[in-house]
Design goal:
The protein is of the alpha+beta class. The chain contains 3 helices and 4 strands, in the order αββαβαβ. The protein has a two-stranded antiparallel ribbon with strand order 1-2. A two-stranded parallel sheet has the order 3-4.
Length: 98
Amino acid sequence: MTQPHMPSQRCETLQDFVFALARHGRRPAVVAIDAEGRSNALSYAQLADAAGIFAERLMRDGIGAGTPVVLLAPTRPAWIVARLALMLLGALAVPLDD
């Protein structure tokens, strides 16, 4: 069994982890395939960028560290972006199945 790739630099915080994603650049991070077989992919850089943009929007709306936020959405790339954005803010994600 091969060992998983370990980052060369240790992430001390969840925020470090999200920003570290961008170091992987254009490599696919998330790939979703819909019922018709079409794929939607985000690179690591796109994922980190989208999470940062969404975190800024949430912060403008008053979401911050310790704020509970319900995530009610199908599991798709946008859900992962939202979860990472909440991690950046230190907000508490409360995922619910739809």
